[in-house]
Specification:
Layout: H1 2-35, E1 39-43, E2 46-55, E3 59-61, E4 68-75, H2 77-80, E5 88-96, E6 101-115, E7 123-130, E8 136-155, E9 163-172, E10 175-184, E11 186-190, E12 194-199, E13 206-211, E14 220-221
Antiparallel strand pairs: 1-13, 2-8, 3-4, 4-7, 5-6, 5-8, 6-7, 8-12, 9-10, 9-13, 10-14, 11-12
């Protein structure tokens, strides 16, 4: 009788201990999930970065009222090295018939790049445009599409403080988990939403594109679906 009572007490204690362990495991996992940063990731790939420049204050130079007119544009030294005679651009202009103004596009061909007297934009280029100068025309901007650059293209939002967060999978005795490491990269070129990386990343690596709280080197992260 006493032995059976002791066995029952031992079994009850064992069940209580097991329940406590399960509760602690669940509670610890819940707290860990709550505190672990959630991130979105993407795999790096070779790609093309499309580049373009917009110049917003071209000046119309009418040459005797001929269909071919010239536009001039002041540019910085950094912009001037990208432009050469013979380059193609697009002039966006407003044309009025006296009642309604219409926005139109016309091909423009760069004729020359020269020095200017402007201190902030020390260069000026001129471009020929085939439009009817006898109409009421107001140039709006010149769009210049540069040759695309090839390399590892990633979202610009991934780059912070000169580096990115690289995601790696680590195996532990409890299973596998995702951890991040800080990697400094060289941005060769960037646009409004993309960056071309020349050093620091290889194709096929995973990087963080967004996160919901501050990250630290070596910390564990989770995907939104986990």
């Amino acid at each position: 009788m006493v032995k059976n009572r002791k066995r029952g007490m031992a079994a009850k204690a064992g069940l209580t201990l097991l329940a406590m362990m399960l509760f602690f495991t669940f509670f610890s996992g819940t707290i860990s999930s709550f505190l672990t940063p959630k991130v979105t990731i993407t795999m790096t790939r070779q790609g093309l970065l499309n580049r373009e420049l917009d110049f917003y204050d071209p000046v119309l130079l009418i040459d005797g009222g001929t269909p071919a007119v010239l536009v001039s544009q002041l540019v910085t030294a950094e912009e001037a090295v990208l432009i050469a005679a013979g380059d193609s651009m697009t002039l966006v202009y407003a044309e009025s018939d006296g009642f309604v103004s219409h926005t139109r596009n016309a091909a423009a061909l760069v004729e020359s790049v020269a020095a200017s007297d402007d201190l902030l934009r020390p260069y000026v280029f001129t471009a020929a445009v085939q439009i009817d100068a006898s109409r009421d025309i107001s140039p709006l901007r010149l769009n210049y599409r540069l040759p695309a650059m090839q390399g590892i293209v990633i979202p610009l939002s991934s780059v912070a403080g000169g580096g990115v967060w690289v995601v790696r999978r680590h195996d532990t005795f409890l299973g596998s988990e995702l951890r991040i490491e800080r990697r400094y990269v060289t941005v060769a070129e960037q646009t409004a939403g993309q960056a071309l990386i020349s050093e620091g990343l290889e194709s096929g690596e995973y990087i963080v594109t967004s996160w919901d709280r501050p990250l630290s080197n070596g910390s564990r992260v989770m995907l939104p679906t986990e």
